Amino acid sequence: MKRGQHMPELRRFFAGIGKTKALAAIGRRLAPADRWVLRATGGRFGVGTPIGLRTLLLTTIGRSSGQKREVPLLYVERDGKYIVIGSNWGGERHPAWSSNLLANPGAVIALRGKRLAVHGRLLDGDERQEMWDAVASYWPAYNSYADRADHRKIRVFVLEPVPR
């Protein structure tokens, strides 16, 4: 089976209900717990880990406050880079982390027990579509989020590790 074609049954179930506004509301409420678990485990474990979700903890610098801001995000890894989606669960506005990343592309991710400095880059055109398709095949609910957010184009970012 090709990469991305197999979806564990629990993840498939949650991806199905993930399309609903009800799960979006639950997800928003779980985000602080997910952030705490990811921080405590150095990105080794998140709330969605038991159902097969890959989550990283992204730390950006607030564009207005200058303070560190952390957010758990689903991701897909491509060629040593990490693709993340600014869906905001299909909400009306772009998530704050995506605006922070546009203002200051330098960020840090916690993932698999490591902290990596990354540079965030907003994708567009064919590259955006290719990465959108990769992430949406992993978590199909993103297509529903895009339908709900039809007044805005959901941002897609690549997080590229910064060489030491």
Automatic annotation (TrEMBL):
Name by which UniProt lists this protein: Nitroreductase family deazaflavin-dependent oxidoreductase
PANTHER family listed in its UniProt record: F420H(2)-DEPENDENT QUINONE REDUCTASE RV1261C
Pfam families hit by this protein: F420H2_quin_red (PF04075)
Catalysed reactions, semicolon-separated: oxidized coenzyme F420-(gamma-L-Glu)(n) + a quinol + H(+) = reduced coenzyme F420-(gamma-L-Glu)(n) + a quinone
Domain of life the protein comes from: Bacteria
Family as reported in the entry's similarity comment: Belongs to the F420H(2)-dependent quinone reductase family.
Transmembrane annotation, as ranges: none
